[in-house]
Amino acid sequence: MRFLLDAEQRDFARSLDALLASCDTPAAVRSWAAGDHGPGRAVWARLAGAGVFALAVPEKHDGFGPLPLELALAFEALGRHAVPGPLVETVAAAALLDRLGDDRVAAERLPGIAAGKSVLSLCLTSLGPYALDADAADAVFVVDGDTLRLATASGPVQPSADPGRRLSRPPGGTVLAQGPEVTDAAAYAADVAALATAAQALGVGRTLLARTVAYVTRRTQFGVAIGSFQAVKHRLADTLLALEFAQPLVHGAALSLAAGDDAAGRDIAAAKVTAGEAAYAAARTALQLHGAVGYTEELDLSLWIRKARPLRDAWGTPAACRARVMGVAR
């Protein structure tokens, strides 16, 4: 299996980084946390123009995909820049609606997703009762067992460790489909969501490491930069190694999903737990090496620190992912 990216894929990743670097994503996250979705939706529109959401939509519904590897590259960039919103849930909903096989529902929803006009949230009750950013979504889909529903309301917003992730319990709604095809489509959507979340966590970890390295080269103690201390170097090296180890697992899982390999689910679980733990370790390193300033909400770095642990647990906890890799039912 080839893990090296080709020139077009590298250019795509660089173009997304450049696009997002021109957006004030920390301000968008803070507005999103306060219930103002305007700045976040503006970033969303620019991402749609770059074709990000079309990567999850098949060509017959105005998309480019499904292209799991390119989608993973996109979500790494989204994580690096802490973009708010139900990004993972929207592409997972696209995967579910495409796999469901209902052409009427797919034709109604998927072109809007590809164009960035539809922001969706998705709740699989087998993984938890909450939907992400349902208050900001144009539609909320809920899968309960073998039943797919369209929620009629978002439900009250619950507190979250990450201010950019607004959780709520969607109430019951209109039944759209029922049967084993819903179960199969939901399982596939969960894999897409886990892959996208793993890639997003990897991007979060990369930014945490980069900003921490920049900080320890500026911060001095006893007249020298603290980055010159051996203990600090070791901590940063461990963080880098964990992220470097996670990246090929994420890309390999994307290739497995694209090829329809039977082992794709286990590959995604391995990538999810590895990237999630690496990002969480990067957050702990960043917090420790920034010292007291790392605890302040005013510091933009806090937006990445507070994102790492929720991403580690979203769409498959570390325990659940390890059990899947080992073939143990949970």
Unreliable segments (pLDDT under 50, ≥5 consecutive)?
A: none
Shape: globular
Strand residues, percent: 5-15%
Question: How are the strands of the biggest sheet laid out side by side?
Answer: 1-3-4-7
Helix proportion range? 55-70%
Strand-pairing-aware structural class: alpha+beta
The gyration radius over C-alpha positions equals 19 Å
| Cα distance spanning the termini | 30 Å
Number of strands: 9
The largest pleated sheet is described as: 4 strands, mixed
Mean pLDDT: 94
List the secondary-structure elements in sequence, H or E.
HHHHHHEEEEEEEHEEHHHH
Q: What is the number of helices?
A: 11
Fold and architecture overview:
- With 330 residues, this protein is α+β, with helices and mostly antiparallel strands.
- The protein has helices spanning 7-21, 25-33, 38-49, 68-80, 87-100, 103-114, 180-218, 230-259, 264-290, 301-313, 318-326; strands at 120-124, 131-132, 139-144, 147-151, 157-158, 167-168, 173-178, 220-221, 224-225.
- A four-stranded mixed β-sheet has the order 1-3-4-7, covered by helices on one side. Strands 2-6-5 form a three-stranded antiparallel β-sheet, with no helix packed on it.
- Strand 5 and strand 6 (167-168) form a beta hairpin.
- It is globular, with a radius of gyration of 19 Å.
- The mean pLDDT is 94.
